[in-house]
Design a protein that fits this description.
InterPro entries: DUF2959 (IPR021342). There is one protein chain. This protein is mainly α. It starts with a helix and ends with a helix.
């Protein structure tokens, strides 16, 4: 069994058990340290934000198509818009899940790092390691703040989308579509702001990953 297969099996079994400390310990035994896990999880969080950007844009496009409806199958257009809204909701949930996982491994990594610093007997080495820890923590805090800012913009957009979709579900006609057109401009602006905030977070993620890889 190769290292990748073993790593995957360990990750699956221990993650299901919900025991993070045992998970990190088992992964370390196969040469996969907390630092490596953190880099991978930041990468995963970044990719989930990229996916969310696409999903929110697609949802906006389908709502735009629905609001511009002019003959044809209105229910089909509504169903497509609903599907995209639900996909955006799932993408948002995944973003939050991935950020939570980044925070979990970061806490474990920094606690281990500080504990190991305390074991270094030579003062100069201890100071250098402590300085590197603080630098990494500062970079990490900037990253997480950026991720959480982008994350916080998603629920209000999803709420507005849900309100519109439920309203249309109960009143699926041209008059109902006209009634929500006024909210569309605001929704466009909010999604544009979300995408911009996510781009900042993605850039922070790339910078953080690069700094971690250079320091490895």
């Amino acid at each position: 069994m190769n290292k990748w297969v073993l790593t995957t099996l360990l990750a699956s079994s221990l993650a299901l058990a919900g025991c993070q400390s045992a998970y990190y310990g088992a992964m370390e035994k196969v040469g996969y340290h907390k630092r490596d896990i953190m880099v991978d999880r930041v990468q995963d969080a970044k990719e989930s934000q990229e996916e969310a950007q696409q999903q929110f844009s697609s949802a906006l496009e389908e709502m735009q198509a629905l609001l511009a409806f002019d003959g044809g199958d209105l229910e089909k257009a509504y169903n497509k818009a609903t599907d995209e809204y639900e996909s955006a909701q799932s993408a948002a949930d995944e973003v939050s899940n991935r950020i939570d996982k980044v925070e979990d491994v970061a806490q474990a990594l920094f606690e281990e790092w500080q504990s190991e610093i305390d074991e270094i007997s030579k003062a100069s080495l201890r100071r250098n390691s402590a300085a590197k820890l603080k630098e990494t923590q500062r970079s990490y805090q900037s990253l997480v703040k950026s991720m959480r800012r982008a994350e916080a913009k998603m629920p209000p957009i999803l709420t507005a989308m849900k309100d519109n979709m439920l309203y249309l579900k109960h009143n699926l006609n041209a008059q109902a579509i006209g009634a929500i057109k006024g909210e569309f401009t605001s929704l466009q602006s909010d999604i544009s702001s979300l995408i911009n905030e996510m781009n900042k977070s993605i850039a922070e993620s790339n910078k953080f990953i690069e700094s971690m890889e250079q320091g490895s």
